[in-house]
Amino acid sequence: MMRTFRMSTALGLLGLLGMLIACSPTSEKGDDASFTAAVAFYPIAEIVRRVGGDAVDVIELTPPGSEPHDLEFTAKKADELRLVDVVFYLGRGFQPGIQEVVDVLGDDVVKVDLLAAVDLLPVTGQLDGTSGEVDGEVLDGDIDPHVWVDPVNMATLATAVAQVLGDSFPQQRSVFEAAAAAYSVEMDRLGDDFAAGLARCESRTIVTSHRAFEYLARRYDLTQIPIAGVSPEAEPDPKSMEAIAVAARAGGVATIFFEEQVPAALAETIAREIGADTAALNPVETIAQERLDAGDSYEVIQRHNLAALVAALRCT
Predict the structure, then answer these.
(1) Which of 62, 225, 247, 256 would bridge 41 by S-S if both were Cys, CB 3.0 to 4.6 A apart?
(2) What is the pLDDT of residues 272-287, one digit of tens each?
């Protein structure tokens, strides 16, 4: 499902993470009381569950399998936010419904925009010669929100979450820090495997229908080319198709990457026109409940992505 996402007014960051932590109120709950964290969508939920463990009750505001950008924030969810201890989310209009509620929450709720914890990238340009609607969830300031697609950023976010939870619930600080360190080791190992797997490849260009992989591409010295006019409703026009073909040949591209949600017929049509194969890359924005029950996680999906990249880029 392709999406263009641009806020007309600047919502802005709620301050640097250090400032948020410094002014965060300490929970009044006792040692044996639960601590409640609301989280915006799956990648953040995984981090908070791993870092918080049994000490933190997690409310995931985007249901499993649902698109975070399409979230309709209900009055019930708004009431839940007013009762939690901390909210972890991505700002700059990533999920405007959540942002609107967060902006009016009282000082008794700690509000943490995790975009403040990582270095942000601008949105990459549309492929020259293509036309039509471009997906990419463009945030205020032409910022790319897909920070979580880079495993190194996931480790950074885990550290930030542990610091916020520790300041808000000091009885469990050492537990949070140890859990964040363990999760960071896993993410660092995953990142090392990406670096090793993508070190020697015939091509270093990925052509994607979803402009979600710039953080991953920058980290591992790849070039992402997002294409336009590719959606379940409309195929690219002939001019766009030719531009895609030219870019693919110039970059030694033999595979066009699509999201799983895009119908296979469209992917096959484009691949046939430019003489390429197709493969799926998952931006790990959401995981369906049945896949979670089967053991899928951020790392599991990213290792599938790595295998797809190694095969498509002909890495050795």
Answers:
(1) 62
(2) 877 889 899 999 999 9
